[in-house]
Amino acid sequence: MSGRAVFMLLLSLLAVFVVWMAVEPHDRADWMLENALVLLAVVALIVTRRWFVFSNQAYLLIFAFLALHELGSHYTYSLVPYDPALRKLFGFSLDQLMGWERNQFDRLVHLAYGLLLTIPLFEFCRRAVGLGRGWGYVFASAIIMATSMLYELIEWIAAVWFGGDLGQAFLGTQGDIWDAQKDMALASIGAVLAVALHVLLQRRSAGADTGAPSR
């Protein structure tokens, strides 16, 4: 498939998923607020294709993250029923196994923010900005950390602005006073893991191409 065909396929699948998640969300106002970010991201991806095209793998990572965010917006992040789903499908409780007392889906998405979006940013830093490989990794990770901090500020401002249940649903702290710090830390950890995995895969690929044993 061509790059354009892959992009259109991913865009279509995301559109179908968004429509599905739009059916009776837990909190319609929160769903609309959360989806403003998805709309902005999709518009940006469409517009920027005129002058910068990510690889198919990068688009796949981006759309995977948007799908996770969409799932969280349907239930609200603090109510995504991952544990009941695991109980039903596999017969065990992840929360009980890990000793968790809160819904951890928001933590997963913040980790995924770094894990899934660092490499697309690395591609941008390399090809659009012209950075070397090492600096590309550094700047991509720094962008993840900086935008994670910016998102926490946006959450805070939105929570104060809207107030009430909508503000609390969007904030999603679940009573944890260190929620913002933990979210930023997880995004940073995700970025570091993404870089480490990418370096490892690149080295293995280079070793396979040259016939040298991979380390």
UniProtKB/TrEMBL annotation:
Keywords linked to the UniProt accession: Membrane, Transmembrane, Transmembrane helix
Keyword Membrane: yes
InterPro entries recorded: YjdF, YjdF-like
Residues passing through the membrane, by range: 31-47, 59-77, 108-125, 137-164, 184-201
Pfam families found in the cross-reference section: DUF2238
Name of the protein described by the UniProt record: DUF2238 domain-containing protein
